[in-house]
Amino acid sequence: MSSKRFTNGALGALAWVVAILVFFPILWLLLTAFKTEQQAFTVVPNFLFTPTLESFRTALAQGSGYWHYAWNSALTAVASTVIGLALAVPAAYAMAFYPNKRTDFLLVWMVSTKFIPAVGVLIPIYLVYSSVGLLDNALGLTLLFTGMNLPIIVWMVYSYFRDIPKDIVEAADIDGAGILQTLFKVVLPLALPGLASTGLLALILAWNESFWSITMTDHRAATLAVYIASFKSAEGLFWAKMSAASVLAIAPIIVLGWFTQRQMVRGLTFGAVK
Amino acid sequence: MKALSQSAQQPATGEATGARSFARTTRLLMAPAVIFLLIWMLVPLVMTIYYSFQQYNLLMPMYDGFAGFNNFAILLSDPTFWKALANTLIIVGVSLAITVVLGLALALLFNRTFVGRGVARTLAVAPFFVMPVVTGLIWKNMLFHPVYGLFAWMARQLGLEPVDWLAHYPMVSVIIMITWEWTPFALLVLLTGLQSLPEDQIEAAKLDGANAWQEFRHIVVPHLGQVLYVVVMLESIFFLTSFAEIYTTTSGGPGTATTNLPYYIFQTVFQQNDIGIASAAAIGAVVLANVFAIMLIRFIAGNLNAGAAR
Fold it and tell me: How far is CA A223 from the centre of its chain?
C-alpha cells in the first residue's frame, strides 16, 4: 500500500512540475512586465528584482496608442458578439423548437462554413472591402468576426435551447402565445446562463483573433493583436513595454477562459464533448 | 407547434393557413443568419474560385482576363508552393502527433486526485487562452533569442553553445510554439471527456477484478476514442491555417523554411499583388481543409441524429 501511496505522490508531483513548466512562459512574460527595460534585456536573466510599474506606465501612457487599440479590440469583440447573438437566437430558436425536414441540413451547413479556411475567402473580401471603404474600418472587422463566430454561436445557442424541456414551449403554444412571445417570455429567460457563456466564448475568440485583424486593418481600426504584432521587429528594444502591453491584453482572457473552460469545450467541439 | 407532427392534434379548421403562416415565421427567423453566412462565407468562396481562373494582378491591370488553368499551372510549377504545401503538412502532422499524445498523457495525469489539482490544471491549460500573437513574441524574444533569450542562458549554464532556434531550427521552433498553445486544448477537451466516463462501468470492471491496464484498454479507450477523433479533426483544421505564430516570428523564413499555405497566400496577395495565383492557392487550401472537414461534419451530423433520437 505504501508503494501505491508513493506512486500517487510522485504522479501528483509530476503533474505539478508539468503545470509549472507549461505555465512558465506566461509567468516569465508577467515577470518581465514588472521590470525596467534595462532589467528585461540582459544576457543573464534577472530572477530577483524590485518590481516596478514603470513599463505599465509607459505602455499605457498617452501617445503609446494602447487605449486606441484596446478600444478597437473591445468594440469589435462586443459588437460582433451582440450581432452574432441577435442573428443566432432567432435561427436557433426556430431550429430547436420548430424543426422541419430541412433543419438538420441547415444546421450542419452553418457549422460547415466554420471549416472554410480564412485564406479561402480572404481575397474577395479584401477586394470588396477596399472598394466599399470597409478596409481598416471597425464595422468591416466586426462583420468578419461575426461571420467567423456565427456558426459556433448558432450551434451553442441551439444546443442550450435543446436542453429546455419541450413541454414548456408546447404548453406556452397551447396557451396561445405566439412564437415571438414564447421566445421572449419563456425560452430566453431559461436559456440565459447558456447565452451568457456563448457570448463569453464569442468575446474570447474575437479578442484573440489575429488573421483578419492583421490583413484587414492598418491603424484606424487596428486591434491589440495588430499593435502587439508590431513589436515583432523590435529587436531587444521595449521588451518590458511589450510584456506589459501583452499582459494587459491576455490577462482578462485567461481569467475569463478559466471560468468558461467547460462551455469552451462544448462550443469548440460543436457539442461532441460536453 | 411542430409543423407536421403536431398538426394532427390541431382542430381541422384553418389548419392549412395556420401551418403556412407558421412556416413563414420560422423561415423569417432563420433567414438573417443564413443570409449573413451566405454573404460572408459562400459568396466569397465562389468569388475565389472565379478569380482562380482569372489573370489578375493588381499591379498589372492591363493584362486582366480569363486565364483558364494557367494560374494552377504556374502554381504547380512554383517550388515555393510545393514547399509551402509540404511545410503545411509537416506542421499539421507533427503538431498533431505531439499534442494528441502529450494531451492524452497529461489528461490522464491531471484526472488523478492530488493536492492542488484545480490550480495545477488551471495553470496547465492557460496557454490555450493566450493570444497567438503574444505567444509568438514571448517565444521569439524571451525564450528563443540566441543572446538574450532564456534558452541561450540555460545552454551557457550547461556549458553548451547557445542555439539560434529561429534561424537554425525554424520549423522545430514553429512546431514548439504551436504545440505549446494546442496541447492545453487537447488536455482540456480530453479531460472533459474523461470526466464524463461511465463511472458505473468502471466500478463493475473493478469488481470483476480488472487491473488498471484492462480498465484503461476496455473502458477508457473506447469512450475517449470519440473525443480523440474530434480533437484530431479540429486541430488538423486549425493547424492547416496557422498564421500568427509564423507571422510574428519567422515571417515564413529563413528563405521559405516555415512558409505554410496561409503564409504563402498572404505573401502572394499582399507582396506580389497577384490575385489570380493567390486565389488558385486558396482553392488548394480549401480543398485540403475539406478533407478533414468532411469527416468532422459527418461526425457532427451523426451526433445530431443520435441527439434527436434521445
Answer: 13
Whether residues A254 and B129 touch (CB distance < 8 A) is answered with yes
Does A14 sit within 8 Å of B188, measured CB to CB?
Answer: no
Quick one: B32 and B172 in the same domain? no
CATH number for the domain harbouring residue B295: 1.10.3720.10
Nearest residue on chain B to A22, alpha-carbon basis: B124
- DSSP tally for chain B: helices H, then strands E: 15, 2
Same domain membership, residue B143 and residue B263: yes
What total number of domains does chain B contain? 2
d(CA B166, CA B146) in angstroms, rounded, equals: 9
Instruction: Choose from A123, A162, A246, A248 for mutation: most chain B CBs within 10 A.
Output: A123
Q: In the A/B pair of chains, how many CB contacts fall below 8 A?
A: 316
Q: What residue segments make up the domains of chain A, in order of their start?
A: 2-57, 65-233
Host domain of residue B205: 75-309
> Any residues with CB less than 8 A from the CB of A177 and at least 6 apart, and which?
A185, A186
Report ipTM (2 d.p.): 0.88
Cell 473552460 found at? A261
- Higher pLDDT: B210 or B1? It is B210
Residues of chain A with pLDDT under 70: 1-2, 234-236, 274
Look at A257 and B126 and tell me if their CB atoms are within 8 Å: yes
Residue B124 confidence (pLDDT) = 93
Q: Do residues B176 and B136 touch, judged by C-beta distance below 8 A? A: no
CB of A125 within 8 Å of a chain B CB? The answer is yes
B124 and B22 in a common domain: no
In a domain? residue B244 = yes
Question: B242: buried, middle or exposed (CB in 10 Å: 19+, 13-18, 0-12)?
Answer: buried
Same domain, B88 and B13: no
**B298 vs A: CB within 8 A:** no
Please tell me the predicted confidence (pLDDT) of residue A274.
65
Evaluate whether residue B62 is within a structural domain.
Answer: no
In a domain, B34, yes or no: yes
Residues B151 and B206 in one domain: yes
B217 and B284 share one domain: yes
Query: Pick from A18, A100, A173: which is nearest to B3 by CB?
Result: A100
Q: Are residues B16 and B107 in the same domain?
A: no
Q: Say whether both B94 and B21 belong to one domain.
A: no
Which residues on chain A are in Cβ contact (under 8 Å) with B37? 110, 113, 147, 150-151
Class of domain A65-233: mainly alpha
A29 Cβ contact partners less than 8 Å away, ≥ 6 residues apart: A243, A246, A247, B134, B138, B142
Is A102 part of the contact surface with chain B (CB cutoff 8 Å)? no
Cβ distance of A8 and B117 shorter than 8 Å: no
What angle is formed at CA A221 by the lines to CA A216 and CA A225, rounded to 5 degrees? 75
B246 touches chain A (CB under 8 A): no
pLDDT at B8 over 60: no
Residues 173-232 of A with CB under 8 A from B: 173, 179, 204, 207-208, 210-211, 214-215, 224-225, 228-229, 231-232
